[in-house]
Every structure is written in C-alpha cells, then in structure tokens.
Specification:
- By secondary structure, the protein is mainly β.
- About 15% of the residues lie in helices and about 50% in strands.
- Strand 2 and strand 3 form a beta hairpin.
- The longest helix has 20 residues.
- Keywords: Signal.
C-alpha cells in the first residue's frame, strides 16, 4: 500500500512539473549585422542589373516558432550606408533626386501582419518608409533555423526573405525608363536572443 501511494504521489508530481513548463515563449532577438545582409538589384538600360548593399542597419524582432503570427519586427537602414560599388553613383543616390538622405536619413520597415504559408515559410506585411513616403510591402520569408551558436552559446535564429518594390511608389522617379522601376531585395537575417 505504501509503495502504491508513493508511486501515485510521484506520478502526480511528474505530471504537475510537466504542466508547469508550459508552451514555448516568444523571445526577442537583435539583428546581428555581422551575419546579416540586405542586397538589392535594379535594371540598368536592360543590359545588366546594378547590385547594391546596405552596410549599416539594425533592429529587433520577437519570434516564437510555435506561434509566428504573433511576431513583431522593426528595422532601420541608414541611407548613407547604401553602396553600389561606384563612388559617384553612391554620392548621387544620396541627393534630392533620389533618397534625399539629408532630409530622410533612414529607411524603416515595421511589420504589421505575419502569416504562415508552409512548414518553414511565411509572409510578413509591413510599413516600408523610404524618403518620407510609407507604403505597404510584403516579404516572402523562409525560416532557416533556430538554435544555439556553438561559438558563444547564444540563442540564434535565422531567416531569408525577398520582395520586389517599385521605387516610383516612394517618389524616386529619376531616369525611369533607363534605370528600372522594380527593385528586387534579398535579405538574410540572423538574430541573437536577448
């Protein structure tokens, strides 16, 4: 009888402990710029595509793989950090005909809706602001992996994303017809858990 009572009490304690653990919780991550990239492609006279990168950006996001629809995301890109492998062009795009960086030094993206489309895929709809104009943009996102970084034991999560925007939607209309309107963006993000 005593053995049966002990077994019963042990079972209750194990169940109670399991229930107290509860579901996984969302974690806040900071973008690790050393292992993240924002790259864009834009047509040049139909001959080729100019490639550009953002070298200075940051932000944070909240993510729970069990409930991605409850995520949050805020990113800021410094316009002065945009580079296209040509000093003259990089200087030109900072000016009033393009990004007008002196008046609008930041590009921002704030997620507003998060949708799962597959086991490791989803969409993020958000407000993209360029040169003072805000438009809705949708990122097609792939969840790569979540786990521990073996170098420093930090918690890391990684995503790949892409989208296409029209620069004219943001008032950037210089040389349309010669320089493409569609801008293809590829984004690789690693976030480090707080």
């Amino acid at each position: 009888m005593i053995k049966l009572a002990c077994a019963y009490i042990g079972s209750v304690l194990i169940i109670a402990a399991a229930l107290s653990i509860g579901p996984a919780q969302a974690r806040t991550y900071d973008i690790d710029i050393v292992h993240s990239n924002i790259v864009f492609f834009i047509d040049h006279l139909g001959f080729s595509r100019v490639v550009g990168v953002a070298r200075d950006f940051g932000g944070s996001f909240e993510f729970d793989p069990a409930k991605p629809e409850a995520s949050s995301l805020d990113v800021t890109v410094k316009v002065e950090s945009i580079a296209t492998n040509n000093k003259q062009r990089d200087s030109d795009i900072q000016g009033a005909d393009w990004f007008n960086a002196s008046e609008f030094p930041d590009i921002t993206f704030a997620g507003t809706e998060y949708m799962r489309t597959g086991e490791k895929t989803g969409k993020i709809v958000g407000d993209l602001t360029i040169a003072g104009i805000t438009q809705s943009a949708t990122l097609d996102v792939t969840f790569n992996r979540e786990g521990e970084n073996p170098w420093d034991n930090s918690q890391v999560v990684g995503f790949s994303a892409e989208t296409t925007i029209k620069r004219s939607d943001f008032g950037l209309k210089t040389a349309l017809g010669m320089i493409g309107d569609d801008v293809k963006l590829y984004i690789e993000i690693e976030g480090r858990g707080r």
